[in-house]
Amino acid sequence: MASSTSILSRMVRAAQLQPDFYEEVEADTSATGQALLAVVIVSLASGIGAGFDQLVAGGGGNFLYGLMFGLATAIVGWLLWALFAYIFGVSILRGPQTSSTWGELLRTMGFANSPGVFRIFSFLPFVGGIIAFAASVWALIATVIAIRQALDFSTWRAVITALIGWLAYIFVVFGLLILLGGAPALFTV
Length: 189
What we know:
mainly alpha, 0% strand, globular
């Protein structure tokens, strides 16, 4: 099914927050590559927006380095957040109907990133920050729907699973940064 359905149409349906779409990609094991591609497209759009923001603001950052670093962290973030959501969702927060795999969450949560493509406009004066924030909130709502559909449970249980999964992911990232000596860079301006 993934090969006959375009990535663009799937990203649009994901951004439209269609529960049926998330059920569709949950069941379509061939859609994992497209979910990864959605994450890559969104991270590239976000990186381009941030890079242009640096250029417009006259920042001295390395555009290409930022783009590649953003791409790598987006993919790792997607994998870890989906893993932690899976672990908590099928064990501790498991509902009576819950039956899922990590792959199902990878697919649904990958496409849930789709609204983040609008972060490409984050460099625009005055409205760029608002657009980026709105895209992030929109993607978070899509993630809750993705988790709810993949794990077959209530919206509130999906919200809690998304939050716990995200916090676990952030904890691991900060722990790694501290171990690698990179944490001080997070707190400098």
